[in-house]
TrEMBL record:
Keywords: Membrane, mRNA transport, Nuclear pore complex, Nucleus, Protein transport, Translocation, Transport. The lineage of its organism: Eukaryota, Fungi, Dikarya, Ascomycota, Pezizomycotina. The keyword Transport applies. It is found in: Nucleus, Nuclear pore complex; Nucleus membrane. It comes from Acrodontium crateriforme. GO terms for cellular component: nuclear membrane; nuclear pore outer ring. Residues 7-16 have a biased composition (Polar residues). This is Nuclear pore complex protein. Residues 1-68 are annotated as: Disordered. Pfam families: Nup84_Nup100. It comes from the Eukaryota. Functions as a component of the nuclear pore complex (NPC). Belongs to the nucleoporin Nup84/Nup107 family. One of its GO terms (biological process) is post-transcriptional tethering of RNA polymerase II gene DNA at nuclear periphery.
Amino acid sequence: MAPVTRRSVQAGSGVNATKIVHRKTRSSRASSQASHAWNNADDDEDDDQNINGYDEPSDGDEPQVSIEGPHGVAQALHPLRELAEKVGNEVESFAVALDKFVGELPVSPGERYEAAQELVLEFKAIAQESVTELRKTHQRERDAQLKEEWSKRANVAAASISLTGAKSLAFGKGSGLGVSLFGRKAESVKALRQWEQEVDVWELFRLILEIHFRPHDEVWQEEKDRELSSLDPPHRYTPESQLWDRFLIEDDIAKERALIKRWLEETADHQQSNLAGIFEELEAKSGAGKGLWAKGWVNTREKIKAEKRLRTWPRASEAIQPQIRRSDNEDLLVTTLDPDAMSRQQRTTEKPDQFFERAFWIACWDMLRRGKPWNEIRQWCEEHGQGWRAVIMNKAGDGSDVLSNAAWRKMCFLASQSGCSNEYEAAVYGLLGGNVKAVQKICSTVDDNIYAYYNGILIRQFDQYLQKVAPNSLTACSGGRALVDESFQDPEQAQQAITDLVIRLRSKPNTQAESVQPLKIIQSYLLANETESLINTLGYAISDLEARTRADNTEGVVIQQMRPLTDVVMPETEIALDSNALRIVSHICIILSSLRGTSLEDDLERNAEENVIVAYMQKLREAGKRDLLILYASQLDRERSIEALGHMLHDVTQESEQIEMLKLMTDSYHLDTTFVLTQHLYWLVSTLGIDEETNYRPLKILEESGERYHPGQRIKPDFLPNEMTQRELELVRGLKWFVLLEGHWDLTFWALSLAMRTCLINGRVACALEIVREHPFIDISRRKSHQTIKRAINIMEDTVPALSEDGKERRHLEWMKRQARTYYELEQLMMVVEAMAQWAFHEDPYVSKLPKPTSVPIGLKQAKTEVDEYMAPLLNGILRNSNQTDELRDFEQIRKMYLPEIVIAYQVFLYTAGSLITRDCFLESMDLSVSVANEKNGLAAALVVAGRMRELVTSFAYSSKAILTLKATNTKPWRAKKDREGRDPSIWDDEQARGQKIHSQRIWIGNRKEWRIIPWLRLHGDPELPVIVEEWYETREKMQNAFGFEWGAVQEQPGFPPTFSIGGFAVMLGLSRQLLAGIIGAVNVRSDFIHAYDANLDW
């Protein structure tokens, strides 16, 4: 089901850290200079610096990764590289929720905060739905995978050897080791675990909003005062539990730490194996199954009993004890079974009992780590015959009414430092007493280390609070630990401490890889209260990533370059490569921007923030979620939204989808639609480079031919290009946006003409032809005119009437015609080319077929009619006028590139048609010469500039020769037609011309002494046609330089009219005066070199 957005309502890795590009945080809290760098630090530096009273300086050096060459870059960016097509349907649910949020965003800060909290809860619910759905089919595989990971981290496999030396049961029944997943199942389990982490991330972000982004207004203060008033004033007999509640209300930093500590406890079951799985794994490794918990030190007890049967047994208080050795080595066994025996006697137990001891403390640690209440822990211990262990943790229970537990915490702290049977026992005591070092020794995950820090710092901070409100409770037990530490109360130092911790975790071998996973990076920024810096740093990482991949980037991602590219790959790049992580940060970015209420003033910060949203938009586009682009574009600044959408519409191909997106842009989100489409067109045309294979003459219509039907050339049957690139297809489709856009007559035809001009100038004829096929002028004119003047018309028809007597409508129609003329003329240019292709398609099989058919094919005749029809506007002159300099420049280039080839091809076409269809085409060739000579249409100038006038006139000579040849060989009289205006080939007939006075022409050749008189065709009823060329020696140099050849002598050939030759440049003297004048005028010969006069001479 499609998302219910405003549309439907209206319609019905990098393993080393680099410096963070730090962004200024909110004014309500201090800015941390430490957030300038998530640096690496010494592995030896402890996470509990200054917590246990040690003064251990940190290493400020910042190792970086140097990447050389493209292979190094690819290797650094390889981890967790996810393709955008993996974006699921959940993104639509996020978009629907966000659309509702931004569409109904309240004005007051308090209401905005409440709306943001509700939105985050909705995001969490969406992620939770995905978790629930995936757990239905992949819960077992997920649990097995987590058990395997836990077993490797816990390092308990070596303790599974039994007393009898049996084989290890580490891989026995119930063990998660060896679980391997492949294919879709592996991807599904991975997705399940990522969604579980996302649920936790959204909950953490909700806490951060509650702690740091809630407006500290009167309502907030009233709630705080009300909570404090519900508690009794502190006094020396106040129970510690009440002091703890007051402590969390009064101290905002303590409250934050307590909330995050509780969050870390809740996430342990999501991101690590659950308790049941841990117990099963321990039972499997022990070899005793569920009997593991009921055995106790059974093997050591049996060994002691056996020794007691053989000797007298001393009291436990006696100094000398029996020397009993372990079964598997020479270590001494304890001689008593009390819990303190191992620490007191400095002895051990049998190996299975040692494993049991370790396993039990592991179970206690994991229960405490998950925040299980003391009653639940006590019940579990009692059920397994180890109630005494629950007793020592009793003081950690909730709801204790004792006056102070400070002494008990101190004892746990000291116990964790020495005398423990294994590191897990020490960790349990350390967790209860606040000894971060002891806990840290068993921490193998990022969250465990962070939990150890928050637990320790919170205990120390509470003890410090007790010293202020109940100093008597700490007097006897504060020795050995410095309780007074002002850094506990300083928000800036507290934030710095978390930053330093994350830096150290990124350098430790057992947490290095995990700490740079995308969601863990997000989590680290949230914990450090550096959410804005996360967005800013990610914006820089996206900029660097785009710069590295720009050579391979064909999609036109609009990413602002923030700085010169370096060889250092930022860990935050992993977020940019992970679609889900990028989605999370993008929505966090929009939420914070909405809470802020205004755009960032700093350009770099604003560009970095918008880089995040634009990068997510690109992921959506790649995943086919194009209808969501406009929602996220509306969250950008106006210029950036125009630019971003303008680069992301090229693969929207369905007309219905285009119409829908136009409505969204215009009606729902009120974007500048015309600017977006204009930007889109500019980007599309910018991707069309010059086709080097076709330029400078992109259109090659003609080829040499020796057939008698052709004047030395013919129109190639396959000259029309038909292959188009992907970019060309996108340009053709991109113009559909303007056609579908309601109204905007001038913008539509401007876009069409710009696309056509760009294609033709760059030699992309196939694309230009496809444009006019997909967007015919007459269809566009009728559609847009109906939207503009409520009447569907072809604006280029001369019979278009004015719609009002006052002339206003007539002036408007004239304006519409001017706006549309360029595209109309460019369409005519392409239609001529296509008509010529149709002619060649029909002509080639006709002339090649033997014997030759007696009748001309209908297709050939129709093609002839179409060529003449589309050629007429070109002969009258096209692309001559414009008010824009760039457009005039394009016109000149297009005329130079295409008109010479088309005009010469048309002359060849007329010659061939005269031979195949009707001899009237030879006379039409004479008309063509008149049109070429007309200075108003600029055809002669285009031919001269292109250097192809000689080629055209040579073809004219073939037509003239054909007229005489046909007259001499054809006995059928040539009957004049009404529209010939006196033109008739019989003027070349000597018998008819003898004795008659006709117009003739004199031409001086060389030394003015040699001249000829020839018949002159009477064209268009002009009696003043004789031409004489004088001042020969003065003009010859100009003509020679212009045409690049030597003047020759007069030639006469049988059956061919007298000509003068210019180095093979045969100029038929039967040409019109206008053409000859045009040829000479094109090279700037003075007009007085040409004189016309009547010469009434007898033949």
